[in-house]
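Worked example

This section walks through a single chain of length 254. The input is the sequence exactly as stored; nothing has been trimmed or padded.
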Amino acid sequence: MKNNKKKVVSFLAPKEYRADRGKQLVLTGAVAFAVMMLFCVFSFALGKLETDMLRNARERGAVSDTALERATQEQYEEIKELPYIKDVGRYIQFGYALGDRAAVIDDVAWEKIKSPAYTDIHGNYPMEKMDVMLPIRTLERLGIANLEIGMELPVVVEFSEERQEEFTFRLCGYYTEYIATVIYGLPDAYFSQAFLEAVSEEEERELTLYLRQDDRVSGRQVERNLYRDIDMRDIRQQFLGNDTSVEVAMFTMA
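Given that input, the structure is written out below as tokens.
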């Protein structure tokens, strides 16, 4: 006797399809929810990492990780060629002005190392001889409320304990900084290279190099590499290294 299963199959197939479809929808929903949660977790972690990196840079007043004081031109040229160093900026402090460090820096130091740690930057870095750029809190301390680019300011520059001179400068820019002064020192009042060359009585100015290193290399490893690759001018000269902002932020998250 022939057994006809067509009616049974036709009867059961829709039920099996609906049951499997329900399971697939549940599984698909679970996978989508898991992916969404992973995306949220990684987005939150990345956002916190970037926030901590920015806060660390602002407290330092720079995005550099290592510095070399009393540097020479030869050391500057050698460091620029090292594969684990991304940027090298030149910084010269020649005294104090309005309670800040009076400084001149090059384009790399301003664009790559200093300005990324500031906010509300107005105007431009000093180019003309009598230009000056100041932190907003310094201007507020002077009682200047209505800031205008181009306004004239009398500024006493302390070149040394024995030499102080007053000049009239043109405010070419101002910025907001968040430096932890107790740890990292005073903020900077920026002057032009032309002004420094006109007033400096020193033949050789003390040069500091600010270094941005590869984020994949720790501060301690960079220090070891630099001492290995760069000749020091004397036993007093040393590299002042920190862990990168990435390392510090990741350690904070751990």
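What to look for: Strands lie at 66-71, 85-97, 100-105, 119-123, 131-135, 152-158, 164-176, 188-191, 207-213, 239-241.
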